[in-house]
Amino acid sequence: MKNKKILICVLTILSLFWFSPITAYANSSWVWISKTRPYDLLPFVIAGTLLIEILAVRFVAGINKFKKIIPVTVISNLVSFAVPYLLMFITVQMENTTISDGIPYTLEDALEKWPFYTVGLTFLFMTLACELPIVYNVLKKETEHRKRLALVIIGSNFLTTVLTAVVERTLCYGRG
Predict the structure, then answer these.
(1) pTM of the model
(2) For residue 161, with 0-12 CB atoms within 10 Å meaning exposed, 13-18 middle and 19 or more buried, which class applies?
């Protein structure tokens, strides 16, 4: 049992390093080389994430109320996917970054120019900060195993975050 815990800790730490940025893009011009951008993948990533998280809460946490699981999972995921883009857009606006004619960047302009993979270590923490309280607080009355529910929410979000990161980094690439 102790070896299993050590293996899980080592794998978790290694996966967190994978999410951490290795390079800095200090005032360099980022160019996406691939035709696919991370935001192009959002509909597919969200659909897969919802499926995994809904099924995990239903079958692993043992909550039988799909009519309650589905809307709370959808709402919490929409919040957690929107937050990184919103924070990035606010950051660009606060830096007074403008296009050459002095017009502030629109969200579309910012997404096109920013060296921005949606998923990273910060995204995982934001996802958990958004989703865990929403899903847990709505569904905790539906189970006697509240600790299992919390662990399922954390585990399914970790899994979907890793899968999303793999998809983004496989299909989207650029250079600074």
Answers:
(1) 0.73
(2) buried
